[in-house]
Amino acid sequence: MRTNPDFSIEQECGISKIAGCDEAGRGPLCGPVVAAAVIFPSFDIDIPVVIRDSKQMTQKMRAEAVRWIKENTVWAVGMCSPQEIDAMNILHASMEAMRRAIDGLSTKPDFCLIDGNRMPQNVIGRAVVKGDAKSLSIAAASIIAKETRDKIMCDLAQQYPQYGWDKNAGYPTGDHLRAIEKYGINDCYRKTYKPVRERIQNETAHD
Is the pLDDT of residue 57 over 70? Predict the structure, then answer.
């Protein structure tokens, strides 16, 4: 049975300034990986919007949540470019994006809750598997990260409308893969990802 996240983990830590952190965009073939960090002012705050794992929310619910989170919490985003992802691999790029988000907070947290099973380097805190379903701080970060990345991909789609990034967010859908075959790749792509790498190899073989 699905449960909504709450502040139980935060309260267990016994620390007031806790940042939840999550990332969005490990799987897409293009665009940055984006992370967000969020600090709630208290753990008994009244929250009038739905905050849970961003993947379980509609776009309208996320938009409402983003407005409230940005107005009522301390938050920041960090990201790594496709070139950085290719240079350091997506796992390390995701960790670096989360570290950048935490470093970008205007209030320094005393402790961080990180979604997943790994901690970014030089970050004090705890990794929480499926944290966006358990911790409100992490869930809020997941919403900010996803909405920020979706906006970036929609903006990039204005420059490259043939790929449908405003609809597929860069994920390897059938239409997206067919567009890559037809139009090729550009600097927005992660060249170490298999469909992109294979396209490059095919182009090289035909030169």
Answer: yes
